[in-house]
Amino acid sequence: MKRLYLSLICLFVLTACQENEVGELSPLSIRTASGITHDFMVELAVTPKEQAQGLMHRTEMPMEQGMLFWFGGAEQMRSFWMKNTLISLDMIFVRADGTIHHIHHSAQPENLTSVSSQGPVAAVLELNGGVSRLLGIQKGDRVHHNFFGNPLAP
């Protein structure tokens, strides 16, 4: 009985660690209309499984990190929610050319209200809640990443 109990505890801990595990990071930059560039390292959510998981169950994320949801370059209306997401997020909705179409600031943790892209987009970038305003990132600014075909030179 003790072994079964210990096995179940180990399985629970392993599963919890996997949910909070940070995936491979990719460089991404945002250049504002005033010419200021902000650099981030982002996890990529490309597969349906990665997109469904997103940042759920995370209790923190470094300010210079985020997650980029890429939908293969096809622009269409997108909706996100904060189910099982424990940190506030800025949702930055991005067109296929890297232009920021819309920003939903500081989405509330665990809120089940749908957040719309308010137009067709090819990607969604999630940063910590409040980072967009703090850095002056606005609609019309450009996101630079290989997915948009416009990476900034190092």
Question: Any key phrases for this structure?
Answer:
globular; 154 residues; Jelly Rolls; 19% helix; 3 helices; 7-stranded mixed β-sheet; alpha+beta
Question: Could you please describe the fold and organization of this structure?
Answer:
This protein is α+β, with helices and mostly antiparallel strands. It has one domain: Protein of unknown function DUF192 (Jelly Rolls). It is 19% helix and 32% strand. The chain contains 3 helices and 9 strands. The chain has helices at residues 2-20, 48-53, 131-135, and strands spanning 25-31, 37-45, 65-70, 79-80, 89-94, 100-107, 115-116, 123-128, 142-144. The chain has a 7-stranded mixed sheet. A hairpin with a 5-residue loop joins β1 and β2 (37-45). It is globular, with a radius of gyration of 17 Å. The termini are far apart. Residues 1-19 have low confidence and may be disordered.
Structure at a glance:
The chain has helices at residues 2-20, 48-53, 131-135; strands at 25-31, 37-45, 65-70, 79-80, 89-94, 100-107, 115-116, 123-128, 142-144. It has one domain: Protein of unknown function DUF192 (Jelly Rolls), CATH 2.60.120.
What is the CA–CA distance across the termini?
57 Å
Beta-strand percentage range: 25-35%
Q: How much helical structure, as a percent, in the residues?
A: 10-25%
- Compute the number of structural domains: 1
CATH class division: Mainly Beta
Indicate the topology.
Blueprint: H1 2-20, E1 25-31, E2 37-45, H2 48-53, E3 65-70, E4 79-80, E5 89-94, E6 100-107, E7 115-116, E8 123-128, H3 131-135, E9 142-144
Parallel strand pairs: 2-3
Antiparallel strand pairs: 1-2, 1-9, 3-8, 4-7, 5-6, 5-8
